[in-house]
């Protein structure tokens, strides 16, 4: 029994070391108590405001992207998202327009004075993407693509890091640390639902991850309501919950004509639905958009 | 290929039948469009107000329970919870005071003009429990104890049904139907977190289950913030999310001296913490308590 | 930091206490090193032989059950299963023939000199069921129906306890302890798949639960290949894995005409398929049936 | 209702299309009925033999790696594994020796006439790694790093692809297709446990994934018993189950002195444990090693 006690004390010692290591992470709240605010000229993410990042799942054409940009602008929002490099389960599914998509997104964002957000899936594309984007997204499937994380950490461009499909919150934090350990301090976290047994939703939105991430790190935390729920009828309730629990923003997908979309057609809002979405959020009193472009 | 098509059409037919069956459930919104409101004299659950149900994990003594009742009453709340029959993983853990616990809970509730809520785990105890309780709770572990559900369905007493640890929302709805099919129409649903791989929280609060249950059924839906998170620091954020997303109420555990509690000592709030919890909810503007006792 | 160290040592102390408690469970291997063998006259479960328990999902008629019994007997097997009380997700699905089903099962078992196994879902039915059955099964949904476990613990009849859909192995062991703590020492455990995100199978067969249960307890451990996989094409591979990893037996469902079965029609083997199943197991050299009736 | 029927038929049509697409994958059994056998001179993987791939978690030094190689050779095995690029949760954990590790592994393998297997985590390292390795491994965290998959598909070197921590079997198959669609036909799949709620094992070994993968694809399928269980006491039982269910091989980690290992110290076998492991597998009759180097 005495041997057992020593073993447990040894294990306790290891735990303490591990906790100490966690407290010394650059992303840790204990290393920097004030909120990280990622600033984009007039707009910013983090620090008490609420941002909505909207746009199509995939950039398909200038017309489609510009229409979304106009819609985003109409509501006084600042950020336009749109996929150019699409990570798809099957190699035969539409993989995005690539560089051409980045150029379209940039032009649409510029034409409506918006900031552009898009995902990069390859280290080869980081440099080029940085020329066209205001925020580089690293998606759920690449959350532990440490090579991509490290290279993103060397960029001088904000990184939006999504939680992996079955990543623990601890692993998520360490992945952010991979980026920051290379020098890039502008990191935005995004909870986007985790994989569970439940099939009523595409994923299960782990809503309490938001306050945990806000407590353990000093980074802004967004909630992607589209990919977490996969259901249009849940976007508004999920956004309300995200805002009430303290998220710094919400991501959602919109498309001028979802039925014809090349990906995620069932879960993108059309513009009329998005108008209602914004209206209801404003009516709820939860939307605290302070910044102007 | 043609054979394959017929097979798929046959499968589609089965799906349609299944959907039809679901739409004809007594608990289904399509069978009764208006919200079910469970009324307790002056207090009620459902129909647009927000109820807080609080009390100790387990009834340990009259003093402890009365102290909690006084605290509940102080904040103008109407419902006191307290466990008398405790379902515990180990047969050697404290199993609750049983009938004695019910009597104590009843007395404390009466002394402070509150409604009493407690869990029943055995069909043998239903009748007796009904004499002492205003709401009979069926816990997560018994969500598919169909025998208990059927017997509860014959009672003339509101039933608070908690979602099983790994129950799908569909299974949860069918379990409510087991109760209602026996005649009891006063059913309150409660999301209490589901079991996933994530270890930062005791369970994963499936927050979007709330709007799904509100859409598919006409029943009131509560959120148990204590058992879903298992962390005191997440009770307030989780309660805010629950209120924002449209829950009809929140359940939380409080104890005059959590450190000495016979169960769940780490996750019960003391009264000072509960005062802050209530204050912050009121300050958030999310708490819409309309009823008075 | 010192305070932290004391806290960790305190936690280590709690862990040790918990481990000590586990080692003192009646079902624990550390309390009884030799295997529990549950004996039924000439046949037995545990102790190095391999048993196959087969029969229809639900008892539907004497003809159907007797046909299955004949098939079971043909292969020299000793145990016939058949559901009389069926736990079903929907209250409107076929709930089994009840007492009538038990009587049919008993008669079919007697007519072919087999032992009868069936599930009981209500404490009210335990006494009656014990008159008709050789083994009383407690199903996955009732693994933490502690009331039923305690009553089963007072019976003088072997109990086959299935693992809950999302029960940890530790919880499973404690549920067995609920039974044994009441005096009943004849308990057989059954791994039947756990609920995960994977949809290729009905559940995920947790095959390494078998050696863990064999190591931590002295009880026999079976594997239910039908409910864990839900796919006929996986019954044989799953049975081979179960036998290779040290299970004491395998449960599988067979039906004279699966297409017309009142439940689980897609996953029951017809007799020709069962003949192949047995043949292939014998050819693999993994089937070690030593006993004869 | 009629509208509903048409909708369902439309959905059925989509399902058929999707199934058709799956049947036309290059990795699909329906496109190539005979087993793919990946051949390495005298040794091969697939086609009915049973291979054991063993070696240290990480290459730490020539002495350590050569000791493992000698041990592997002693048992007549053909494949030596050893990590040079280690994907680690924390950026501050040992990340492997990199190129130096590859060189050591190659030399140790050559000195004992073994084939060398190691993981690559970056597209930048593929070319160099191909010079030193006989099999390039793509790990669980990179299973949907489509960039890496595509580049691996252009290599003239066998790829060992591990299943992602929470990947469905369908996603796993599509990831293999990403590789094969680029021309590389020599792909070996490896089940390594999935992430579930259960904590008794590091991951949950999804043993029935093996026959499903063998049925749906023509590729060899291995089981990594070390990472799926994370427990030394389960390596042998898991290996037996893998062999019985039809796996083409088993991967396991060994180290001359596990206690001093720079990673995974708790789950690597020392050589005496590995001797027993081999002996018991041979005694079980399940080990069918036909080839010799």
Molecular structure report:
Four copies of one chain form a homotetramer. The first copy, chain A, has two domains: 1-33; 36-284, Alpha-Beta Barrel (TIM Barrel). The termini of chain A are far apart. The model of chain A has no long low-confidence stretch (mean pLDDT 93). In chain A, helix 2 runs parallel beside helix 3 and helix 5 packs across helix 6 (169-180). Chain A has ten helices and ten strands. Helices cover 39% and strands 14% of the residues of chain A. The first copy, chain A, has 293 residues and is of the alpha/beta class. The radius of gyration of chain A is 19 Å and the shape is globular. The A-B interface holds A 166, 168-170, 194, 196-201, 204-212, 215, 228-229, 233-234, 237-238, 240-246, 284-286 and B 166, 168-170, 194, 196-201, 204-212, 215, 228-229, 233-234, 237-238, 240-246, 284-286.
Determine the fraction of residues in helical runs of chain A and give it as a percent range.
25-40%
Largest interface: A-B, 37 and 37 residues
Unreliable residue stretches of chain A: none
Main β-sheet, spatial strand arrangement of chain A: 3-4-5-6-7-8-9-10
Enter the CATH topology name of the largest domain in chain A.
TIM Barrel
Instruction: Compute the average pLDDT of chain A.
Output: 93
The portion of residues forming beta strands of chain A comes to 5-15%
Q: How many separate helices of chain A?
A: 10
Order of helices and strands of chain A: HEEEHEHEHEHEHEHEHHEH
**Total number of β-strand segments of chain A?**
10
Number of domains of chain A: 2
